[in-house]
Each structure stands twice: as C-alpha cells, then as structure tokens.
Write a structure and sequence with these properties.
The structure holds three protein chains of three kinds. By secondary structure, chain A is an all-alpha fold. Chain A has helices at about 10-45, 50-65, 70-85, 90-115, 120-125, 130-160, 175-185, 185-220. Chain A has eight helices and no strands. Chain A is globular and about 75 Å long. Chain A starts with 9 loop residues before the first helix and ends with a helix. Chain B is mostly helical. In chain B, helix 2 crosses helix 5 and helix 5 (about 90-115) crosses helix 7. Chain C is of the alpha/beta class. Chain C is about 40% helix and about 25% strand. Chain C is built from nine helices and ten strands. Chain C has helices spanning about 40-45, 70-80, 95-105, 110-125, 140-150, 170-185, 195-200, 220-225, 230-240; strands at about 1-10, 15-25, 30-35, 55-60, 65, 80, 155-160, 190, 205-210, 215-220. In chain C, helix 3 packs parallel to helix 5, helix 4 (about 110-125) packs across helix 5 (about 140-150) and helix 5 (about 140-150) runs parallel beside helix 6 (about 170-185). The two termini of chain C are about 35 Å apart. The chains are: A mainly alpha, B mainly alpha, C alpha/beta. The interface of A and B includes residues 72, 82, 156, 177 and 206 of A.
Chain lengths: ~220, ~220, ~240
C-alpha cells in the first residue's frame, strides 16, 4: 500500500529519536531521585524497633504498587496544578515516576537488606561494631551486590512507565510516535519504529539483568 | 489555593464507576484466562528441543516484555484498522491484554517448571512411577504451587494495567472517569476516587488469591 | 574474669536456662558439653550480649553485660566470639576481614591494622592466604580466619561456639590445633564443643549442661572417668 509512505521522511525519524532522548532523561531523573526515596523506604521497612516507620513504609509501597501508574500520573499531574504549583512539565511528570520508583526499588532495597544472614550482623556486633558500623561496612556492600540485578530489571519497567506520560500530553517517545502517525498516516511504520526503539533500549538492560543475576548466583 | 474540592461529583456518579469496574474485571479476567492458555503453550515451546518452536516463542516473549503496553495497544488497534478489520475497542483491549499477559505468564510458568529439580523426576522414575505419574505428582503439583503467587501478582498487574486501554476509548473504569471529567472538569477528585477503587480491587484479589493458594496447596505453602 | 550468677532465660515460654552459675578464672580453659538443645550455646551467646537474659547477672571482668545496651559494645571489644558458621564477611579478603574491626572500632591506623592482621593470620597458619576471599577457602581455613579476626582485637576472653561442628572431619584437626596453641598461651577460653579429645587435652575444667542446668562439673578425669550424674553417663556413652 503506497499510502503508507506519504510524507514520512527522515525528519520524522529524527523527531522520534529526539523524543527517545526525552524518555531516557525522564528515566534518569526518576531513577536517581527514586533511589533516594527507595533507600529511605527500604531502611524504614527493616527498622528493628520502630513499628510506625515499618507501617508507614509498608503502606507507601502497597499504595504505589496497588494502583495503576496511569492513575498516579493523572493524580500527581493535576493535583500539583491544583495546589497552585506551576512546575515545568518535565518535573511534573517526573514526580509520580519518582514515587513509583521509590516504591518498587524500596522493595528491592528491603529484600537486599533482609538477604543478609543474621550471622553477619552477629559477627559484626561480636567484634564491637555499632549498628551503623555493621550496616555500613558489612551489610551495605553485600546488599548492593544483591540489589543490582533486580534494579536493572526495574529500569526496564521504568522505561515502559515513561510511555504513560503520553496521557498528560507530554512529548516523550510514545506521544511523539502518535503525533507523527497522525501527521503522516504512516501509522504502522511509525509504531513499529517506536517499538523497535523501546526494544533497543530495554533488551540490553534485560540481558544485563539476567547475566548479572547468574553471576551473583555463582559467587554465593 | 483557590480550588475547592467537590467530592460529591465522583460519589454521585457511582453507578457509572460500578459499571466501569465490572467492565475492567471482565476485561482483565478474560485476558488473564486466555493469556494463561497462551502462556502454557509458549512456556512449553520455550523449553522444547526444537528451535523452530523455541525461537518464535522467545521472540514473542522478549518483544512484549521490552515494549510498553500502550505502544502494543496502539499497534494492534491501528494495525487492525489498517488491514480493514474494525473491531470494538473493548475487543481490541482484550486481545492486546491477552497478548501482553501471555508473555509475562510464559516466563513465570517456564521458571516454575525449571525450578523443579530434575533429580525429583529421576527419583520418581526410580521408584517405578510411569511418566504420567511422575508428571502429575512430581512435576505438575509442585509447579502449580510455585507459580501461583507470581501468577496472582501478574493477574493483578494486568488488571491495573488495563487502565491504559482507556486511551483507545475502551469502556472500562478509567474511561468512565475520563468521560465524567470532560463533563465536570473535576479531574483530581474523580481520579483519586477511581484510584481508590483500583486499590480496593487489587487488595481484594490479592487476599483472595493468597487464601485460595493456601487452601489448595495446603502443606508446603511457605517453602518456596 | 567471667562470672555468671543464677542466670535464667526464656525463649518466649520456653525456659532455656534455669539458674546457670559459673565462674571462669583468668587463663582458665573451660569446656562446656551437653546434648543439642541443652542450652550450652545459649549460655555463650548471653555472655557477649547476643541474647538477653531475664534473671541473674553476667559480669565480664567486673562489668555487667546488658544486651541491647550501648555499653555492651565496649565489652564486646574485649570478648572474642567464634561462630559455628564462621560468619566471615564475604566481600572482604582474609586480611581485610581481620583488620576491619581494628580500623573502625578501635580506630587503629590502616598500616598498623594490616600488620596486626598479617601477624594474626600467621599465628593461625594462613600467611599465604592474606588476599583470598572466603569462598576461595576451605571450611577449616575460613574458621581459622574467623579465629584470627577475633584474636586481632586482643580480647581478654575468647568464646568458641561449636566451632568445628560444621566442618568436614579432616578439617577439624587444624582448627583444634590453633585452639590448643591459644590455650597453652594462657588465653581465657570458654569452649562449647563435642570434641572430647580436645576437652581431655586442653580443658582445665569441664561443665556438663543438661536441660538448662549445670548438672555436673569437674576436671577432665572426673567427668570422663568417673561421671556421677546419670544423664552425663548416658551422654558420654552415646558419644564414645
């Protein structure tokens, strides 16, 4: 069907590639800030004696994993403008993604800390180390290694999650694809390209995650 | 802050949301069941010796798992239109959800089958069991027990992910919210209310799956 | 050096230690024997505050041991503990395992800490394994590193919790030899073990723990050749 190639040119391809940079930027923002949140959540969830912290963190994780990301983006985006905050679109879209990252990565952090056998804690304590010292020198190095494969796996989810910024009209890769397809009517071609770009970003991450996981199992 | 919250707007329209929620459940339920069938087939294909089975199955799974659902949705929707097939948005949604869920469930089932140690089937055979008996008692039940929690999570994730089909105007919960929003412009209250409905549904099914699993796989539930 | 006075401990509703009292003098080697579940490991874990006690007192060199307090950390700097499952830090080399606590707890400068670590590892016969990671070492070697790690802190008292129970039989000897050398060097030790040969060779005193109480106490000859308690007699028979 020759109509597919109406008006579709390399300029559109460039536009899509630019948009994919936006996607990557959103991910970088969400992941770096989300990691901070995740560390806080993870530590709160493993707090030995303060039950309130554990409860609050658990509730946070339940809420952000038990509701659709689409809803989170809607609510955060429109909620922010209601409060009167006029933030640049990039930031407004990043915020729900950061909170989302915080919840999922928080679980990964928690699993990492809990994967450390109690014997490691006891060995550290028996040598006279304080809780923070054991955490910093014994638990964290091991936990970080455990957390890396699932974190890379989560990045894939995050990249896919940025596609939902489409719904508030933010121009990332999916919205760009929609715009181009509306302009050129080369819908199938455009979305195939969009899919390939996402695949090109995510597939290496997935492979890396699997390989890291296998390497971790060998050393255990 | 000049905004005043009008919570009665979404609350007043609860019948629309009820229908929406039921549509969401119907959509996700069908997609999950069909997806499960697809998943079992593809899991076996991925584990087979024949490359012509393994290859396509692996390609399918990797393509779906590495691309966003919304892109898949548009692809199927516009793809069908281009080829001249005009289906209802609801049907397109179910088709895409099935394809999506199927890919994720394939991985879950494959991992479950592989997690059963080969030594166990060897032990079964050494005790004089037939292949059918080994399959039924040594492989099938333990596999079901292992895959139950991640499958349950995936089903709930699919239900939550179905909110995206609102973008092709499929009639479900999120779409009901969008319709109301375009009439009343109470974006925040409406979607907050809808998020709560999703949350409650997700919690409900989470508990339901967990209890069902504990009853059916009574003994070794915790030993995963 | 170590005084345990009428200690009672419950795990939930289970009464694990029912009035344990014992004293260990400086330089003494005390071996504790008993069946699994008799509470012998628990006693040890209470001494360095890993487990809290509900009644009684434990005094290390006159200092009261209170689990979960800030003060117990100071006591732990002077009490070395060696675990049945070694508990070496997996992503540190042998030398780093031994020097870590020196650096961060006792604030010893890195070069000096390194030197002490090398010395300690030499004492346990592992001078050639300084840069090895735990997963590259055999069980016996790992346990010897664990002993070196505890020794590096110059403890006044060393506690050994069934340290050979997790080892393959042929690796037990090398660990026991290190412990024997230590004993002959005058270290105050409390050793929970099943190794009767070790007890005979090294112990100044042997304690038999049965169901949370010290059922019999005496020198090695008294315990092994002339046991009075009938539980002890059947225990010895089941071992030999």
């Amino acid at each position: 069907m020759p109509e597919i190639f109406i008006a579709f040119s390399y300029k559109d391809v460039l536009y899509l590639l630019q948009a994919s940079l936006v996607t990557v930027a959103l991910c970088a923002m969400a992941f770096s800030c989300g990691l901070v949140v995740a560390l806080a959540i993870g530590l709160m969830r493993t707090a030995r004696r303060v039950r309130v912290l554990r409860f609050v963190a658990a509730a946070y994780v339940e809420v952000f994993r038990g509701t659709p990301l689409l809803m989170q983006i809607f609510i955060a985006y429109f909620g922010l403008s209601i409060i009167g905050l006029q933030l640049p679109k990039f930031v407004a879209v990043s915020i729900p993604l950061i909170l989302f990252t915080g919840a999922f990565m928080g679980e990964i952090v928690r699993a990492g800390i809990e994967a450390i056998p109690r014997g490691q804690w006891e060995a550290g304590w028996s040598l006279g180390m304080s809780y923070m010292q054991v955490m910093r020198w014994v638990v964290v190095p091991t936990a970080v290694r455990i957390m890396i494969p699932p974190s890379v796996g989560f990045l894939v989810q995050l990249v896919k999650g940025t596609s939902l910024a489409y719904v508030v009209g933010y121009v990332e890769l999916t919205r760009a694809g929609y715009i181009v397809s509306q302009a050129t009517y080369a819908t199938m071609l455009v979305f195939t390209l969009v899919g390939l770009i996402y695949f090109g970003i995510n597939y290496p991450l997935s492979l890396a995650s699997q390989r890291l996981e296998a390497r971790l199992k060998r050393h255990a | 802050m000049t905004y005043t919250f009008h919570w009665e707007v979404p609350l007043r329209e609860w019948p629309a949301f009820l229908w929406g929620a039921l549509a969401t459940l119907e959509m996700s339920g069908v997609a999950c069941l069909l997806g499960l069938v697809v998943a079992v087939a593809c899991a076996l294909a991925r584990l087979s010796k024949h490359r012509y089975l393994r290859g396509p199955a692996t390609a399918y799974v990797e393509a779906i798992r590495n691309t966003p659902f919304i892109v898949q949705l548009f692809y199927v929707y516009f793809g069908l239109v281009t080829v001249g097939i005009n289906l209802e948005a609801f049907t397109v949604a179910i088709i895409t959800l099935t394809i999506n869920c199927g890919a994720y469930c394939t991985e879950i089932i494959r991992a479950g089958i592989q997690s059963i140690h080969r030594g166990q089937s060897e032990a079964g055979l050494s005790l004089g069991m037939t292949y059918m008996q080994v399959f039924r008692y040594v492989i099938l039940m333990p596999t079901l027990r292992v895959v139950w929690p991640p499958l349950a999570s995936q089903f709930i994730a699919t239900m939550l992910g179905s909110s995206v089909v609102s973008q092709i105007s499929a009639e479900e919960l999120t779409y009901a919210g969008m319709m109301l929003e375009s009439r009343t412009f109470r974006t925040f209250e409406i979607f907050f209310f809808i998020a709560i409905i999703y949350f409650v549904m997700a919690q409900f099914f989470s508990i339901l799956f967990s209890l069902t699993g504990k009853r059916v796989f009574r003994r070794a539930w915790g030993q995963l | 050096m170590l005084k345990i006075e009428n200690v009672h401990k419950w795990f939930g509703s289970l009464h694990v230690l029912k009035g344990i009292s014992m004293e260990v003098a400086r330089g003494e080697v005390v071996v504790v024997i008993g069946r699994s579940g008799s509470g012998k490991s628990t006693i040890l874990r209470c001494v360095n505050g890993l487990e809290p006690i509900q009644q009684g007192r434990i005094l290390v060199d006159g200092e009261l041991v209170e689990a979960h307090s800030r003060h117990v950390r100071k006591i732990r700097e002077e009490v070395g503990f060696v675990f049945q499952s070694f508990n070496l830090f997996p992503y540190y080399t042998a030398q780093e395992n031994v020097s870590l606590a020196l650096k961060i707890v006792k604030k010893v400068p890195p070069d000096q800490a390194r030197g002490i670590a090398e010395q300690m590892l030499g004492r346990v016969g592992l001078s050639d394994k300084l840069a090895a990671y735990p997963d590259q070492l055999s069980g016996g070697q790992q346990q010897r590193v664990a002993i070196a790690r505890a020794l590096a802190m110059s403890p006044k008292l060393m506690l050994f919790d069934e340290v050979t129970s997790a080892l393959d039989p042929e690796l037990v000897g090398e660990v026991l030899k290190v412990m024997q050398d230590l004993a002959e060097g005058g270290m105050t030790m409390v050793v929970v073990t099943h190794e009767m040969g070790f007890a005979r060779a090294v112990a100044d005193r042997v304690l038999f723990v049965h169901e949370g109480q010290i059922a019999e106490e005496g020198t090695t000859e008294q315990i092994f050749s002339a046991p009075r308690n009938e539980n002890l007699r059947s225990f010895i028979q089941s071992i030999l």
